[in-house]
């Protein structure tokens, strides 16, 4: 258990809650915008923000910035911690705590809450949109503005669920602001017979054309809000399930200089977490709004505005203060320089079973059984166009890579296991019966996604830290690291990444889409709510020299009669799939190609070196290959290597081949099917034939048994192997397109004398066999 041990409080809180106060079903805390240095205008911005000045009489109008208490992140945390400590005891047994946090330090609030309430009480992180973009301290290049905020939700009772299916408005919809990003002209609104020409807010456009505005004004689905801004009516789907992406409603606006939640957002919170007759406590209030909505819903409302006098009196601030790892007892501070240097012996000890090379690619299927491996691959020139795929624990693999690749990689993209608690399976179809019975699938573990013991946080940190350290070493000075991860350990990953890369090298947290419709429907069936539909993609740069040159997100919008394409520099990347819908492989966690194309396009140029050391189905390297980047892939799973190999070698061309025989026999887990593949190598003069005879207890054909076959006729690694077969099995609902294994594969040698043939075959369980055969041709 990582404990939050920061306690040097230098604040006093006013209006303390009485200990015997009502028990609250919902405690909703809106933390002030967490911004460091001089970004004070958001909290105490203007002389006329009356409420703020009333609540904080110590503030001097016009000197607002100087007394902004969020100037020091250190103090910000102290205040929030104190507030939470005061508020949590007032939560009812079935109650929810929802706390909104904005900015790049929000993961530390999750750490704090995990400690105060317990990790298993965390429900989800809800994401919502902001009316402005936060630029993280990246001095040059495209800013990738953060336009999202978070609401962490915790439940007091682990079994509590939010109100069933969301059906927010009895009236069937809500009013939505009509402005959208990108500048545009003023338009005419005719409401109640009165014509008004209204320009959109600076830098924005009105979402609809003049014709649509006229039509909507006629049928009453456009109105002017109390501040005179046009709003349009959005119909809400009944029974719409709530996930954690709340971008369907406008959640925030800039009120009198402060960030305010909209009615729609507050109403959704109330409907989700409270019922009629419940009590709620609002901490750091938006004056009046929530109270009104609560009254309408029959919820008893109470508010509490702690005042941090001492903090408010502090002038200036310490600027960007990073929570050092040492703040968390039990966490190991990182130890830079622990990585073996180039001069040292390679620390990787693996057994290289064989090398496959097709075109310019090298494949290293390896096993960790104590022999020195990669040795004969030493001297690969990282500047050449040689690509590498290695099967090995990446801790060892990366140490080996340091020999030749230190400071050479332009982009490392990783999608490590999230440790969701469920091991990932691979389902391989076997033989014809597969269509009749699902039992005829071979189900084997693709990779481990669980941890043993109950000390997950510590295990994760110890497992992840040295790998981050190695990745950092491998990156070029102009290099980038992209880490895809979810809420299970994302906050800890951020902590480690901040520590090792330096917080100033954090670029942004991109939000990427996690699941698609089928999963949502499943959740609907299971009546689960607030399901997670968003993953984080943390972006770091190695040094200031790494500059983001492109604005990668394209948006199309109507412009008169045509469609105009614009680029958006923000962190909300849920406009594209995060996982591949029509999968290319059998691997369970295949990332989407469109996402990888965007990432690779944004951070690299043709010829650059791209690596994925949690290779999985090989999406990163397949797309890098397609986009003319050089690549390195590492994974410890045999299935990963096998699926990737097939993916990269699609379209092989059987040609050449010789003597001896091997068998591959295996029983497929619970399926009790065993198979055998006999491979005979026959020499006829200069002609060498490999004859394959598959047998199985269920009539499975050769293509069900053999997944991959490659031969190196002269066992010369530099020449590489010829891939003669790789199956392309049925994936999802797509038609099965596996090719039959040809019975015979032949090769005619040009030169008599001794030759060494090397064969690698892999069955559908990703079990590999390597054979080398010496022949002497007359
Ligand atoms: C979520 S999957 C990656 C999915 C991949 N991005 C894709 O597009 O298919 C995580 C992968 O990390 C691999 N892995 C986990 N721990 C590893 C380790 N220590 N060394 C190498 N690979 C590891 C697993 O075998 C698994 O294939």
Features:
disordered N terminus; elongated; Rossmann fold; six-stranded mixed beta sheet; binds S-adenosylmethionine; Immunoglobulin-like; 16 helices; ten-stranded mixed beta sheet; single chain; 778 residues; alpha+beta
Condensed summary:
The protein has three domains: 3-166 and 242-327, Vaccinia Virus protein VP39 (Rossmann fold, 3-Layer(aba) Sandwich), CATH 3.40.50.150; 351-648, 3-Layer(aba) Sandwich (Rossmann fold), CATH 3.40.50; 660-777, Immunoglobulin-like (Sandwich), CATH 2.60.40.
Structure description:
The N terminus is likely disordered. This protein has three domains: 3-166 and 242-327, Rossmann fold (3-Layer(aba) Sandwich), CATH 3.40.50.150; 351-648, Vaccinia Virus protein VP39 (Rossmann fold), CATH 3.40.50.150; 660-777, Immunoglobulins (Immunoglobulin-like), CATH 2.60.40. The strands form twelve sheets. The protein has a ten-stranded mixed sheet with strand order 19-20-22-33-32-23-26-28-27-31, with helices on both faces. Strands 4-5-3-2-15-16 form a six-stranded mixed sheet, sandwiched between helices. The longest helix is centred in the middle third of the chain and has 19 residues, at 456-474. It is built from 16 helices and 42 strands. With 778 residues, it is α+β, with helices and mostly antiparallel strands. The site of S-adenosylmethionine (SAM) has 20 residues, from helix 8 and strand 33.
């Amino acid at each position: 258990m990582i404990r939050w041990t920061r306690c040097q409080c230098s604040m006093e809180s006013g209006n303390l809650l009485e200990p015997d106060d009502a028990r609250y079903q919902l405690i909703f805390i809106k933390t002030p915008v967490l911004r460091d240095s001089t970004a004070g205008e958001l909290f105490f911005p203007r002389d006329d923000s009356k409420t703020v000045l009333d609540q904080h009489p110590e503030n001097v109008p016009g000197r607002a910035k100087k007394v902004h208490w969020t100037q020091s992140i250190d103090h910000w945390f102290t205040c929030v911690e104190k507030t939470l400590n005061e508020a949590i005891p007032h939560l009812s047994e079935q109650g929810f705590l929802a706390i909104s946090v904005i900015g790049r330090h929000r993961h530390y609030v999750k750490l704090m809450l995990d400690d105060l309430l317990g990790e298993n009480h965390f429900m989800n992180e809800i994401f919502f949109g902001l009316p402005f973009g936060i630029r993280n301290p990246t001095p040059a290049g495209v800013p990738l503005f953060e336009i999202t905020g978070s609401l962490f939700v915790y439940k007091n009772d682990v079994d509590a669920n939010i109100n069933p299916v969301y059906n927010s408005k009895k009236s069937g919809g809500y009013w939505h602001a009509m402005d959208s990003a990108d500048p545009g002209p003023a338009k005419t609104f005719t409401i109640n017979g009165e014509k008004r020409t209204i320009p959109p807010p600076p830098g924005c456009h009105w979402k609809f054309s003049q014709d649509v505005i006229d039509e909507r004004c006629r049928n009453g689905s456009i109105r002017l809000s109390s501040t005179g801004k046009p709003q349009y009516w959005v119909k809400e789907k009944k029974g719409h399930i709530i996930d954690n992406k709340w971008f369907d409603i406008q959640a925030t606006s800039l009120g009198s200089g402060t960030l305010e939640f909209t009615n729609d957002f507050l109403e959704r919170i109330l409907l989700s977490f409270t019922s009629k007759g419940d009590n709620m406590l609002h901490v750091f209030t938006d004056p009046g709004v929530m109270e009104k909505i609560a009254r309408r819903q029959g919820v008893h409302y109470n508010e509490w505005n702690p005042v941090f006098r001492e903090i408010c009196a502090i002038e200036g601030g310490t600027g960007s203060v990073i929570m050092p790892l040492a703040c968390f007892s039990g966490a190991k501070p990182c130890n830079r320089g622990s990585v073996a240097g180039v001069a040292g012996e390679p620390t990787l000890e693996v057994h290289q079973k064989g090398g496959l090379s097709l075109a310019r690619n090298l494949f290293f299927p390896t096993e960790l059984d104590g022999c020195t491996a990669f040795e004969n691959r030493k001297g690969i020139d990282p500047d050449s166009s040689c690509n590498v795929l290695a099967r090995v624990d990446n801790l060892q693999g990366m140490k080996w890579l340091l020999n030749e690749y230190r400071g050479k990689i332009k982009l490392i993209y990783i999608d490590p296991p999230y440790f969701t608690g469920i091991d990932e399976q691979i389902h391989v179809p076997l033989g014809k019966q597969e269509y009749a019975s699902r039992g005829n699938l071979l189900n084997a573990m693709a990779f481990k996604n669980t941890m043993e013991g109950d000390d997950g946080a510590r295990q994760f940190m110890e497992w992840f830290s040295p790998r981050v350290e190695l990745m950092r070493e491998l990156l070029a000075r102009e290099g980038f690291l992209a880490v895809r991860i979810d809420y299970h350990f994302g906050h800890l990953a951020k902590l480690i990444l901040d520590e090792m890369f330096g917080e100033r090298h954090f670029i942004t947290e991109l939000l990427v889409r996690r699941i698609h419709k089928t999963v949502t429907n499943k959740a609907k069936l299971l009546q689960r709510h607030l399901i997670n539909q968003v993953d984080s993609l943390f972006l770091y740069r190695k040094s200031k020299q790494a500059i983001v040159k492109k604005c990668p997100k394209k948006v199309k919008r109507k412009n008169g009669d045509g469609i105009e394409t614009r680029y958006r520099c923000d962190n909300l990347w849920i406009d594209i799939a995060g996982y591949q819908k029509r999968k290319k492989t059998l691997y369970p966690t295949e990332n989407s190609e469109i996402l990888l194309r965007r990432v690779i396009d944004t951070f690299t140029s043709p010829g650059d070196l791209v690596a994925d050391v949690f290779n999985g189905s090989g999406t990163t390297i397949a797309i890098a290959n397609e986009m003319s980047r050089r690549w390195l892939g590492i994974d410890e799973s045999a299935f990963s290597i096998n699926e990737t190999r097939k993916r990269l070698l699609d379209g092989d061309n059987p040609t050449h081949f010789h003597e001896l025989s091997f068998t591959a026999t295996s029983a497929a887990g619970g399926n009790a099917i065993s198979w055998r593949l006999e491979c005979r190598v026959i020499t006829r003069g200069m002609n060498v034939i490999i004859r394959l005879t598959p047998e199985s207890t269920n009539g499975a054909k050769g293509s069900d048994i053999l997944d991959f076959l490659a031969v190196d006729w002269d066992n010369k690694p530099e020449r590489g192997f010829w891939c003669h077969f790789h199956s392309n099995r049925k994936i999802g609902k797509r038609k099965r397109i596996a090719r039959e294994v040809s019975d015979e594969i032949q090769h005619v040698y040009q030169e008599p004398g001794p030759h060494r043939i090397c064969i690698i075959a892999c069955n559908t369980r990703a079990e590999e066999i390597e054979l080398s055969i010496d022949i002497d041709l007359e």
